[in-house]
């Protein structure tokens, strides 16, 4: 228990990561101490590099090494569509799926009166500015299918109505590979009411 | 997905920590990106500090900022007893419990033929040296109550026999607060055969 204060502080910081508690943080730190040269020091270096170089894209809210991210900088992605997501994690999920070729707009959260998150805390004004600035035709709302997510979607749609842009949202329905027996009532109701000609 | 390569590398390194997988590593990294100044950079700094300053005590195998750890340096802990543990984590567990006032000896693992860990990979010769050097009276084996742990305990006890030092081991029995109904057969058998006058 020597060098003790630093190690305890390190465990304390690690324990604040989502998915780690005090116990698993201790295990992780011990693991790192054993792999000092192959893991601990490279991890420290990379965290420091990322922390210093990566910031938020001023246009869309994505993570970026410059003021404007690669996606916003790419002319190929300027197809008139913008996909509105809650969080950078959702943007990553869309990119991993390789299903969308337009640009993104990261709101940075959802409206949540309980957590004191109002419209001013989300990047909605910037989204409205982008519609004219980038000549957007369609705004696709890809927010989580939760109460907060859908409330936010309605709010954004209402805010954008005066601009005349087409606002759409991800379809709700039976997930691919999903079994009806295991689906919740809300999903079944949504899937039924959005049924399509076969 | 800009600054992408560094972030992906960071996620990859985080995913190698015990208790984190690729998905939770991604969550943790995003969390850190959002708390850049309060968590990411301090964590990077602390990891780097700890990685550079903390090493293994040459005497007992504990983590230490110098060649010899605080416990080995403290005259108060020189009570003639040494507690043999498998890992630094076990040493920490003993210290947290504040039940032992002697010194420690960290073996650095257990004998495990399957993992190709033999006697030469553990710090057993050093332990034998310490018996004479520190005038030890008792070696307390605090190894895990697993097959590997107990095999190692027997091996260590046999190695130390020629020195004449007293070798003891932690008692096995019903854990405090334990209910008989939930205990495994092995624990019940050990508790019964080690029964004490009431």
From TrEMBL, chains A, B:
Keywords: DNA damage, DNA recombination, DNA repair, Metal-binding, Zinc, Zinc-finger
One of the record's GO molecular function terms: DNA binding
Annotated Pfam families: RecR_C, RecR_HhH, RecR_ZnF, Toprim_4
Chain ranges of the Toprim domain: 80-175
HAMAP family, A to Z: RecR
Function: May play a role in DNA repair. It seems to be involved in an RecBC-independent recombinational process of DNA repair. It may act with RecF and RecO.
UniProt-recorded name of the protein: Recombination protein RecR
Gene source species: Jannaschia rubra
